[in-house]
Design brief:
The chain is an alpha/beta fold. It has a single domain, classed as ABC-type transport auxiliary lipoprotein component (Rossmann fold). Helices cover 35% and strands 33% of the residues. The protein contains six helices and eight strands. Strands 1, 2, 3, 4, 5, 6, 7 and 8 form an eight-stranded mixed beta sheet that branches. Strand 6 and strand 7 form a beta hairpin. The longest helix has 21 residues. The chain starts with a helix and ends with a helix. The relative contact order is 0.19.
Length: 212
């Protein structure tokens, strides 16, 4: 009990001393190392399918929460102010470009059904079509950094035929946020995102689908 009170006091001091802190973190600078390589055209649609975003309860910029001294949640958003799906999609496009692919970005709304997204992808005329869904993504930081995630990667051919699909999900404790919990979250969550993208794109079925 004494330790909990002491920890709450430390957090309270930190939050008071850092009143000008912006509760944001940046995923846009993540640089995953992808195995698939090629020079074909690839269209990429990144869609936010989180129920609380689709319903309008939370903004699409939401990336998680950080807890105040007594556990009260403070919302964290993207540093750029862009929707989370746009930031994640931009990372995917940048990583694919580094591997030689010619990329096309396809903008979709959270409420669009999968068939509509597929039609938009097909309409680009790209040789490969990537559909990235964010079904859950929420960090929750108090003393430790917790991450709930459910992300799905689907690859279609130029006509919209399914070639491969891979999903990654979990509820992970990423470890202590350290004394500066904002800094800890800003470090640990982007690192986790980079790892999750590498796991998805470097799966054998996904590599085969993008390179064939």
């Amino acid at each position: 009990m004494k330790n909990r009170i002491k920890f709450a006091f430390v957090l309270a001091v930190m939050f008071i001393a850092s009143g000008c802190i912006k509760y944001t973190y940046n995923l846009a600078n993540v640089t995953p190392e992808l195995y698939p390589a090629g020079n074909c055209s690839v269209a990429v649609a990144s869609q936010d399918k989180r129920s609380y975003v689709i319903s309008g309860r939370n903004k699409p910029q939401l990336v998680g929460v950080i807890r105040g001294a007594f556990g009260n949640p403070l919302y964290m958003t993207t540093s750029s102010g862009r929707p989370l799906a746009d930031e994640m999609g931009g990372v995917i496009i940048g990583a694919l470009k580094k591997k030689g692919f010619k990329t096309i970005s396809v903008v979709v709304a959270a409420t669009e059904p999968i068939e509509q997204v597929r039609k938009k992808l097909v309409a680009t005329g790209a040789e490969k079509l990537i559909y990235f869904q964010i079904k859950q993504w929420k960090s929750d930081t108090y003393s430790n950094v917790r991450l709930e995630y459910l992300i799905n990667l689907t690859v279609f051919d130029t006509k919209g035929k399914l070639l491969a699909e891979k999903e990654s999900s979990g509820d992970e404790n990423l470890g202590s946020g350290g004394f500066n919990i904002v800094r800890g979250t800003r470090k640990k969550v982007p690192e986790a995102f980079e790892k999750k993208l590498e796991e998805l794109f470097n799966a054998p079925d996904i590599i085969k689908a993008l390179e064939r």
